[in-house]
Amino acid sequence: MRWTFSQEELPAIARDFWKQYGNRRVFTLEGPMGAGKTTLVKALCAAAGVEDTTASPTFSIINEYNYKDDAGKTRRIYHLDLYRLRDEDEAITAGVEDTIYQDAISFIEWPDVITALLPDDTIHLQLSVLPDQKRELREAGPRNK
Questions:
Q1: Which of 91, 97, 99, 116 lies 20 to 30 Å from 60, alpha-carbon distance?
Q2: Parallel, antiparallel, or unpaired: how do β-strands 135-139 and 62-68 relate?
Q3: What is the pLDDT of residues 58-101, one digit of tens each?
Q4: CA distances (Å), 85 to each of 29, 60, 61, in order?
Q5: How far is residue 29's CA from residue 14's CA, in Å, rounded to a whole number?
Q6: Nearest to 14 by CA among 53, 49, 40
Q7: Is 87 in contact with 113 (CB distance < 8 Å)?
Q8: What is the DSSP letter of 113?
Q9: The pTM of the whole model exceeds 0.90
Q10: Which of 40, 56, 18 is nearest to 126 (CA)?
Q11: How far apart are alpha carbons 48 and 69 in whole angstroms?
């Protein structure tokens, strides 16, 4: 999949994203600093029905949000920012592995430190900055472990 969008179009892109990937659990988000990874996750949380305030997990590493699915069951979305982690052992100590293998959705920024820990069915997403402040979100190929 590939979407090109402006900030104003992001809510519609987020709704379309869930139509495309609603049954998937683990997503990596790659892109340069300032590309809008956290902004994208905020829009995806809003489109899923998260009512809590969403924020960057840069210092907490893992943020947890709840929403209700179509059946009214409470579900979780985890937003992970691994930018400050040095290696896989530090990620495991922080609870990253436990988080991504729960029955929840995980969005992982800066995933390179945990490539070997990711489930085989992880969706790898690339966010790029385009001219005129637009962004492109596309599915990237699988990563080598």
A1: 116
A2: unpaired
A3: 788 999 999 999 899 999 999 999 999 999 999 999 999 999 99
A4: 16, 11, 9
A5: 14
A6: 40
A7: yes
A8: G
A9: yes
A10: 40
A11: 8
